[in-house]
Design brief:
Elements lengths: L1 H32 L1 E10 L6 E4 L2 E13 L6 E10 L11 E7 L2 E10 L11 H5 L4
Antiparallel strand pairs: 1-3, 1-5, 2-3, 3-4, 5-6
Length: 135
């Protein structure tokens, strides 16, 4: 019986660590290879649905509704549980603009990577706007 209890405790810990690791790996993949985009936060849950990660990669999970603007594509809205780096949690408020990365294979899979203040607006300009000097 003691062996069974020890095995179950180990299994539960393994599942928790594996889940956190999977979220971190997904975030890292999106951060490095996702399509840069701008997001406008339409709503943000007041309550965190949990925290994941270790070391430099610690995140809070929150339900957000976000308007996504990918260069060269029509804007769209999604409602997702987003991973938010702990150092950005205070900046993730309704109405805020954030820099995101979008999975090229699934546009509903996003990562919030920073506040929108550093986002280069020229990357969202259409070719026609650039030719006219608007960007």
């Amino acid at each position: 019986m003691a062996v069974f209890v020890a095995f179950m405790a180990f299994f539960v810990i393994w599942v928790i660590v594996k889940g956190a690791s999977g979220s971190q790996n997904q975030y890292k993949r999106l951060f490095s290879s996702g399509v840069p985009a701008r997001g406008i936060l339409l709503s943000v849950s007041n309550q965190s649905s949990g925290s994941v990660g270790v070391g430099l990669f610690k995140f809070q999970q929150r339900q957000v509704q976000i308007d996504i603007e990918v260069p060269g594509q029509a804007p769209y809205e999604i409602s997702v549980v987003a991973l938010i780096p702990l150092n950005l949690v205070a900046d993730v408020l309704p109405g805020a603009t954030v820099e995101v990365r979008v999975d090229p294979r699934n546009q509903n899979n996003i990562a919030i990577v920073g506040p929108g203040v550093g986002f280069n607006a020229a990357t969202l300009a259409t070719q026609g706007q650039i030719n006219q000097g608007a960007a």
